[in-house]
Amino acid sequence: PLLIDDLAQEQKALHVKPVTIGKTRLSASWLGVPISHGDQVLGILAIASYTPQAFSRGDMYLLENVAAQASLAILNARQFAGVQEEARRDSLTGAYNHGFFQRLLDGEIKQALQKETSLSLIMVDVDHFKEYNDKHGHLVGDEILRQLVLSILAHIKKTDFIGRWGGEE
């Protein structure tokens, strides 16, 4: 945490150059605490005042408690987003699963129709894949599908996406 009672007096000792945001004058006092989890800094929570010595140690402790709650909220939101992303993905290949792929494709079709632009869709079918699985085993077949998806991902733009349609498609 950093508590600056009087920025004009403490500025040289801080070894930082203040930057004004909003109004054209500098704050007179400033209080900031890190929003962190362990050694990972997630952000900073800061308040400022045009009045010198506007904040106390009590304010700093209060802001630290708010920052601790904020870090939990941020971590929970990140974990929830991760679970959502995992639910959208095929567990074998990492490609989008059929349901989410359909939703993305529907959105892309609507956008292309609205903007009157073209849209490309490429579908890949691995010929005789069932026979390959029967002959070499499903573990080898699974690895082939994973490598196929990795190969496709390495050759498409970041704005493109890949989804698993069904069995080996």
Please specify the SSE layout and strand pairing.
Layout (H helix, E strand, L loop, with lengths): L1 E3 L2 H8 L14 E9 L2 E10 L7 H32 L9 H18 L13 H8 L1 H16 L16
Helix pairs in contact: 4-5
Let me know the number of strands.
3
Q: Structural class per helix/strand content?
A: alpha+beta
- Coarse morphology: elongated
Share of residues in helices: 40-55%
Widest beta sheet: strand line-up: 1-2-3
How would you describe what is shown here?
- The chain is an alpha+beta fold and 169 residues long.
- The chain contains 5 helices and 3 strands, in the order βαββαααα.
- The protein has helices at residues 7-14, 57-88, 98-115, 129-136, 138-153; strands at residues 2-4, 29-37, 40-49.
- A 3-stranded antiparallel beta sheet has the order 1-2-3, covered by helices on one side.
- Helix 4 packs across helix 5.
- The longest helix has 32 residues, at 57-88.
Please tag this protein with its features.
elongated, 3-stranded antiparallel β-sheet, 169 residues, alpha+beta, 49% helix, single chain
Compose a concise summary of this entry.
The chain is α+β, with helices and mostly antiparallel strands. Helix content is 49%, strand content 13%. The termini are far apart.
